[in-house]
């Protein structure tokens, strides 16, 4: 992978043992970046993921199981990445959880957990990554927000608040780094068929007596004019672009990939 554009770079992707995070990790590895995976899951399955990334793309890959709701574990993960590779060049803040409920019935502990994992964790990884990036005057921070960083939806108060916060954090980080070789941008996906979204599909199918396919179609077509899910591979390709020299002046963007959701 000597001729790969990201050869010699290290990418840390939070929440990358499945879904969007894994798709982005694979896309970055394909371009030659060494990978730090993060996330929960079966230990043997995670080892299989690591082995596949190393075998398929000729990169190094390690895993750290930091709980992204805990600042001390985040700090340990960032130190681990520095020990393993000497630096973090590309930081992708992707870890996230969801809970749906009206505001008056929203469990306080769920609110706290969503804000911690979906928003505060990105602050902690960013503050710890920036000195490593500043030492090299090169870095790419990509925050996985959501269309819910741009618009609201009912029963998603914590998620929408956190994702709007991520977009705001992205802008401030970009402005503070504006005279450096470090960029920060947010990607705002619409519906992506991740394990998180499949749970919503399952709930709809059960509630309305629909097949899995019918529930998927109903869910997507409610908000996403294309009627199609965004894929982790498409998001990975956008992340690769944001890491490229062509994107050096893309700074502080909230780039929606949402099948037309926010165009309405």
Automatic annotation (TrEMBL):
Entry-linked SUPFAM superfamilies: NAD(P)-binding Rossmann-fold domains (SSF51735)
Signal peptide range in chain numbering: none
Entry superkingdom: Bacteria
Pfam families the record matches: adh_short_C2
PANTHER family referenced in this protein's UniProt entry, alphabetically: 3-OXOACYL-(ACYL-CARRIER-PROTEIN) REDUCTASE, 3-OXOACYL-[ACYL-CARRIER-PROTEIN] REDUCTASE FABG
NCBIfam families: PHB_DH, PRK12429.1
Sequence similarity: Belongs to the short-chain dehydrogenases/reductases (SDR) family.
Protein name: 3-hydroxybutyrate dehydrogenase
Species name: Herminiimonas glaciei
Organism lineage: Bacteria, Pseudomonadati, Pseudomonadota, Betaproteobacteria, Burkholderiales
